[in-house]
Amino acid sequence: MILQSVITCPKCGTAKMETMPIDACQYFYECTGCGAKLRPMDGDCCVFCSFGSVPCPPKQTERAGSCCTK
Q1: Pseudo-torsion of CA 24, 53, 3, 13, nearest 10°?
Q2: CA distances, 25 to each of 29, 34, 44 (Å)
Q3: CA 45, CA 49: separation in Å to the nearest integer?
Q4: Domain coordinates of the chain in residue numbers?
Q5: pLDDT digit string (tens) for 8-66?
Q6: What pTM was estimated for this model as a whole?
């Protein structure tokens, strides 16, 4: 499982490596460049799935087919 993701602000382009929470989705993120408060785009569970280079750990687990929440 990958726990690091580069999140890129769609407003100013600032990119920053962040550590994702293992067991939860992150719904809000404040850009360190312009201060924009990012929220997930429609259909995405978190800001990493919308703006990150890697999807969040829960989504990675789901895509791997080993999700335990069936």
Answers
A1: -80
A2: 11, 23, 10
A3: 7
A4: 4-64
A5: 999 999 999 999 998 888 999 999 999 999 999 999 999 999 999 999 998 888 888 75
A6: 0.83
Q: Which helix (H) or strand (E) holds 41?
A: none
Which amino acid, 4? Q
| Residue 25 near residue 46, CB atoms below 8 Å | yes
**Tokens representing 41?**
């785009």
Contacts of 14 (CB under 8 A, 6+ apart): 8, 31, 32, 33, 34
Kindly report the length of the chain.
Answer: 70
- Measure Cα distances from 24 to 6, 56, 61 in Å: 17, 8, 12
